[in-house]
Amino acid sequence: MRALVLSLALAAPALAEPLVPAFTDESKTAGLATVFQGEWDYMVGGGVATFDCSGDGFPEIFLSGGAGPSALYLNRSAQAGALAFEKTDAVTLDAVLGAYPLDIDSDGVLDLVVLRQGENKLLRGLGNCRFEEANEAWGFDGGDAWSTAFAAIWEKGQDWPTLAIGNYIDRKEEAFPWGSCTDNWLHRPGSGPDGQRFAAPLALTPSFCALSMLFTDWNRSGHPSLRVSNDREYYKGGQEQMWHLEPGQPPRLFTEKDDGWKRLRIWGMGIASADVNLDGYPDYFLTSMADNKLQVLKDTASAKPDYADIAFKSGVTAHRPYTGDDLNPSTAWHAQFADVNNDGLQDLFVAKGNVDQMPDFAAQDPNNLLLAAGDGTFVEAGDRAGVASMAVSRGAQLVDLNLDGKLDLVVQNRWTGPEIWRQTGEAGAWLEVRLAQEGINRDAIGAVVEIKRGAAVERHEIASGGGHASGSVGWLHFGLGMADRAELRVIWPDGTEGDWQELPGHSFHILRRGAQPAAWTSG
Amino acid sequence: MKLYRRQVLGLTVAAPFALALRPARAAARADVSRQVLLTWHKLILELVRHTATYMPPVAARGFAYIGIIAHEALTTGSPALRSLAGQLTDLTPLPAREAGQFDEPCVLHAALEMAVHELFVNTGPTGQRAMLKMAGMMGKTASDGMATEVVDRSIAHGRAVAAHILAWAATDGGAVIENLGFPRDYTPGTRPRDWVPTSAIRMQQAPLLPDWGRNRPFAMPDTVALDAPPPPTYGEDPASAFYGFVNEVYETGRNLTDAQKLIARFWSDDAMLTPTPAGHWISIVMQIAERDALPVEKIASTFAKLGVAQADAFISCWSTKLKYNLLRPVTYIKRHIDKAWEPLLITPPFPEYTSGHSCQSGAASAVLTAIFGEDFAFDDATHEDEGLPVRSFPSFNAAAEEAAISRLYGGIHYRFSNEIGLEQGRAVAVHAVALQTEA
């Protein structure tokens, strides 16, 4: 009977009521215990990073601890089993706001970029989930700021990544912190006398208190730009931003006059990107307070970054709690598109939580799980799926933690510690792939995976950045609905188009550049 | 003339201290009071911007009460000043000072600290932190070198003054703002002329603060009596006068000059992005106070009268807006002229007629003209931090008229709404102008 219901639901993705996934709360048993602590100077941040540093294919979890220690947890889950994590002492830094995994030195071992109050840290992966600080060795100036956003890209012709770091308020300003946004930084490759690989950081002036950054090839020009989402609470004269990043040229801001950039001023807190409307161009969900934004290019042929906000008509404003008694406006942080119910449509998760005792905004603010209905609209299902937590959430990751083909969820909360849910209900078919290339940029950051969805092609940018202080490298998950196989291809970061490949559902594959897809199994 | 007024005021204010303080000492304490008043207002402008419920009418109300509190705190210690009790609707006499010496900066600081804390209790953690910091800084500034018993007595009295006025404020109908001022349920009108929501923001599918026009006015005796006349007869015929007004907005928007864009943005004064229109005029007074080294008593009484005029103007304007419920230009233009047209400014989420900024600017200019004179020139650097250049005005009326026409340039108001709004505000302000702040 359950199978019949599932079949009916998945056979008709355009129906208004999508399959609601079922999650089981395993917060008390999974072994995660790191609390995001701290007061005013930790009101933002609280990031989660997921990546496999043990080499077993299962993603580990790094949790930022704010004023307390952060921690890395080894994934001890059995495939398709209950979630189980073991705390390590590998990364116990304090003052951590968030982290992003990235193989900076392209040695095939993931490193970790750690955003902090104070000096940011690049932690070089040594294998077996051991790390060493590499700021000095790599010539990375960690600075001394309130760092809250990150994005990375390999610029054309470079064998070392460019790192963008977003900074927030000048924390020394107590009476008049407004207007004190400190400079964001662009760490480009360089060459120092002792082999350092990063040049001195460039200030991305003007900076407007960034809380999320994302390199994105918004116009499919082959030259990703840097989108920056800024918190209007603290800037003066600011707005949302995008920077041109052309090889060998200094970064240049998109402007209304020269580029047709349209001014938007929100409490920008997180960026999620996906090709929601299947027009081949990335769309952007921007989290904020009260209404959130879903931006789609008005005219893909115009080459102008002019976006329409379709959040209202798509049902994703997520502007106030949808369950509980608190009807005040919401406060949104991490956002992430992913196909949670494996029906072949991109769903949307949004982490919610009051900044801190702001009575005009909801104190009981449930996280959102907005399921795509197939007709361009989304349906709220957080409560029915069992993930409508009222905790004060910040960072998160939707990721398959037990490698059963269904996405699980880990959320870091302020003061009360993390929550983790295993997806335990029925879902459609799935496929998970990892990209791999030799030489530099082993995980192919900046690549695009195209997957056929009927007559349409859905594009997925492989990015390092975005969300709210939270990042992931690992298996790329695709829901397939009732299909038993998928047709996809990779466009590698240098623009080389791979062949279309047909891969079976319910499988893991390594897509190595220039090679046939290789099936992967656990153990 | 201005200098003469300042001299007279300075002498009269110093008089109560003659028994306790020598003139030089009294002048120094007056300077501290002035610093306390202006520094707190610098923070208040930020708090208005950063407190989500402080939509423009709410901000005007807040400025009014803070101005009244500052004036009354000073008035209880100066026979040269006259209380607004008995002049403002339902305001009863303020607590008198007990026997003993008082320090004016401490009285004023304590009154402002309490007022700001209460009126901005909903601000976010950064605002709360800033208020605490400011309380510490100004408290130290005010009490430095003063005897503890004098400080304690003064603080107690300042708080008593603030508490009295805040209790009065709690009954005016505007004290509680829910859902950022937007009703949770709303059924739009169905007549072609009716206002309908203009944005794709889910929160703004109902008019902001629809009952604001029913709030207790400060100085005007009767809100309804000061209502604006009906707007021009609605029409969709291109030959109709109404179409002509709409078409003016449309054509102006299509042919905006850089100078017009700058004016539109200078007076945009958006909620949650600026100190709002009322804060803009408060900022103008602060700049004049710094430039001309105005005495604290004059600054406080100006804040009080200006705040009262602006708050009443918003009450009056909102009464008119909800009465006529007229649609915005963007709605009409998209329906009948050009589906793709967009105004330069964000269209505010409430009915069009009359223009709120015009109304309160008319009121502000009337009050300030009465206080400072007809041809009082000033520079306005309110939005310098936002990257907008300083603008210079030959008079308050000139500034108000520019504020009014800016709404046409911005594409959010018809010309008649701006012009009638100015007149509506000036009519409301007559009652604020009539307030007596000197004995």
How many extended strands of chain B? 2
Sheet/helix structural class of chain B: mainly alpha
Strand percentage of chain B lies at: under 5%
Strand content of chain A: 35-45%
In order across it, which strands form the biggest sheet of chain B?
A: 1-2
- Kindly provide the radius of gyration of chain B, computed on alpha-carbon positions and rounded to a whole number of angstroms: 22 Å
Total helices of chain B: the number is: 14
Number of strands of chain A: 38
What is the oligomeric state here?
heterodimer
Order of helices and strands of chain B: HHHHHHHHHHHHEEHH
- Overall shape of chain B: it is elongated
Give a structural overview.
The complex is a heterodimer of chains A (523) and B (439). In chain A, strands 6, 7, 8, 9, 10, 11, 12, 13 and 32 form a nine-stranded antiparallel beta sheet that branches. Helices cover 4% and strands 37% of the residues of chain A. With 523 residues, chain A is mainly beta. The N terminus of chain A is likely disordered. Chain A is built from four helices and 38 strands. Chain B is mostly helical. At the A-B interface, helix 3 of A face helix 2 and helix 5 of B.
Furnish the topology, listing elements before pairings.
The complex is a heterodimer of chains A (523) and B (439).
Chain A: H1 2-11, E1 23-25, E2 48-51, E3 60-63, E4 71-75, E5 85-87, E6 96-102, E7 111-118, E8 121-127, E9 130-133, E10 145-153, E11 162-167, E12 184-187, E13 202-204, E14 210-216, E15 225-230, E16 241-244, E17 252-253, H2 256-259, E18 270-274, E19 283-287, E20 293-297, E21 307-309, H3 311-314, E22 332-338, E23 347-352, E24 368-372, E25 378-380, H4 382-385, E26 393-399, E27 408-413, E28 419-423, E29 429-436, E30 448-453, E31 456-461, E32 464-465, E33 471-472, E34 476-481, E35 485-491, E36 501-504, E37 507-512, E38 518-520
Parallel strand pairs in A: 2-33, 29-37
Antiparallel strand pairs in A: 1-28, 2-3, 3-4, 4-5, 6-7, 7-8, 7-10, 8-9, 10-11, 10-32, 11-12, 12-13, 14-15, 15-16, 16-17, 18-19, 19-20, 20-21, 22-23, 23-24, 24-25, 26-27, 27-28, 29-34, 30-31, 30-35, 35-36, 37-38
Chain B: H1 2-14, H2 23-50, H3 56-75, H4 104-119, H5 125-143, H6 148-169, H7 241-254, H8 258-266, H9 276-291, H10 296-324, H11 329-336, H12 356-372, E1 378-380, E2 391-393, H13 396-409, H14 415-433
Helix pairs in contact in B: 2-4, 2-5, 2-9, 2-10, 3-4, 3-6, 3-9, 3-10, 4-5, 4-6, 8-13, 9-10, 10-12, 10-14, 12-13, 12-14, 13-14
